[in-house]
Amino acid sequence: MLQLNGGCHWWEGGSLVKDVIVPFFLGFYHAFKRTFTIKHPFVRLRWTDRYRGRVVLNIDRCVSCRSCVNICPNKTLEMVVYKKRLLPQYDAGRCCFCNLCVEVCPTMALSMSPEVEWDEYTRKGMIRPPDRFSEPIKPVAEKTVTVKILDKRRGVAHR
Amino acid sequence: MKLSMGPQHPITGHFRFILDVDGDLVIKLDPDVGYTHRGIEKLAEKRTYPQNLPVIERTNSYCDSVGTMLGYLEAVEEVLGLEVPERGKYLRVIAAELNRIASHLYFLSLGAVATGFETMLMWTINDRELVLDLMERLSGQRITYTYPIMGGVRFDMPDGFKEEALKRLDYLGKRIEDYYTMAAKNHTFKMRMMKVGILKPSDAIRLGIVGPNLRASGVKADVRKDEPYEVYDRFDFMIPTGKNGDSYDRVGMRLKEIEQSISIVRQAVKDIPKGAFKKWAPYIVPKGEAYTRVESARGEFGYYLVGDGGIKPYRLKLSPPSFRNLIALPHLCRNVPLGDVPIIFITLDLIPMDVDR
Amino acid sequence: MIELSFAEIVELILKVLIFPGVAFPLLFAVIVIWFERKFLARIMLRIGPLHVGPFNRTGLLQPIADFIKLIQKEIIVPENAYKFLYNLAPILAALVASLSVAFIPYAPKPDGGYWVIFYTPLSLLVILAIFTARPFIMVGAGWASNSKYCTIGALRAALQLLAYEVPIVLSLASIVIMSRSFDLSRIIESQSSIWFIVLQPIGFIVILISMMAELSRRPFDIPVAEQELVFGWPTEYTGTQFALVMVSEYYDLCAVASLITLFFLGGWMGPAIPFIPPMLSGIIWFLLKMAIVTVVIIMGRGIYPRLRIDQLLDAGWTVLIPLATIQILITLVTAQWWLPLVGGG
Question: Where are the alpha helices (DSSP H) in B152-235?
């Protein structure tokens, strides 16, 4: 018979009555608190203004300097010819939202938008040529909430 | 009987353990790593210094990205001879400590789920969300922040951040009482955690264990105190240590460290100086080398950087904490019941991405 | 050939198909699965099932949707499995689990009988015999799957279920001493003046814990421990077979909740509800008590982590069996004072 390493017996876990009963009632009490999660598709989280979602290009400001292409660690951006101009093309599948391209842009043509829901059905659809790269962001959903009330007794409320 | 646990298994993540099992008893455990190897050290040689920021961060992205990046930045700044503005240092500390809280809460959730305790999993993950919200206000991201950069931090503190942070940390401090009642004092939880995977202090030092796992064994070692980087020497905090070095101590260690981190953030937010938060940093790094170590949430993270006077590092060597702690896993999993393997694995806080790089 | 009158045939059909028979455990399973998910979600500060069903985002029909989904799925039989036993085990599990309901009386009838599908004076023994069959199905399924996780899970199931049958039988012995009968309906009748939970609190605790272990509910779900053995003995089951395994668990829960109710909480005993025939009020009381027992059993999943197999067996052999024995001794010694209180007789 091998000797077991570690482990303790049933009597070693503290008071048998208190440490079994108190968590039971604490758990039961939590069942009547406000839930932390929200009913997602009906209510959505509000992103802060600083949130780094999709990168948006302002075509009018771009001077085709290639700074963003050079700085990008993942080869997300690539220069393509669009309407006789050299403009960056954006591959959403490669982007890591590191904000480097936005910082190096000398004319502030690139910006991070708080848009997060922009799923595509195909891998090709994730590559955004300059016209879709510069699409304005979609309006946010009607009901958005954020954590407002922090109350230990009744739980966290989103407003 | 050989039992291959993972890489597709509810608890092991991207590891594989090759277990020698006799009925319900694990005789030997052999960790098989490398499923998430991305070659970050080699990638770093092919990218410029700022391009490396998001790459290095992904060594340990979903738990402690600021703690991971700080070491790299320290190394680069040491080679550059760059002094970061005061406000930048404070903001880095705030971000790092908030990230440590988030990481430890994540650890608690995993530690609970290793015993099948879903309630603690959800509570801690929920409260982690509050911290992630704060980080989102600060840096604009929730998981991979890329917040500190060479010469400071990326953004200044937004308006109202201080009040919001204090409010949320107060709430979090109160919630920890619930964690104590529900988990740390729960009879069944104690039964599962106590005396499981006992790591003696002598063994811990001999094996080179770092971070909270070492402190849980009773060794007082924390880079924040031993070799203060940034502005850690200005804050009043203590290093909690455990008594027995078992899994229960390793869980309790994280709970105590969350309390300490909350106190650090409170102090930092209160006496943050005014002024610039970042400084211009040159693109070309001179010839030179530097070894820095920081205390990330999992323990001491070592960086060895060699610059050759170009725009890319000549060599970057990472010594991540999870890799150092991995050696304890086969050591502790000898003749243990199969039910203890997930607990030992999770309480050592091993992240596969961190081990493999 | 037994001659049955038309009323008797109608009653039999009603019993077999509707109330304690086929429909009731299924409905119980559906409601309890929904309630378990929703209630545990609330303990965890989540919302739980949301989309399926009526009544403004309550997810009421989620279990049925899950069931339909599972039925649609392909049944995958592992290549190395022992196919006959592998396919037979889930059907047997569901069948055996649904059997025990047939012997549980749910209410007294106005003409003096009991509302039970099959009346026998030894129904307690029959129920115990049915419970004894369950570990063998689990071991069979685990062995037939021919997978390492399944085998370990099956062995754990066998150890756990066999170990915890002993305290159940022992503490039932003191109930039998009290009520002087193996007949479940007589056991309820004998609680007409005082419930056995008051007379035998130790026995109640032993039975509650052992029954939870028999059911493999959360603090004792060691045979299906997700973090260690992926899903224990039913790991390899898919589709309809998995649905059967799941349903059998909730059939067992239904039987166990009924049994605890009738052993300790006085079954259908309770103040008569006005404007309702006594039989129906008896059923209502029974179901109400059952619901409370079910909630307590379900709560364990949200509050306590899983034990380890050696701790469980340790506690079973060294604590519960002595406790149950002590309960028998107490019952025997104090019987002369309590027996006048016990009705029926």
Answer: 161-179, 187-193, 201-207, 212-216, 223-226
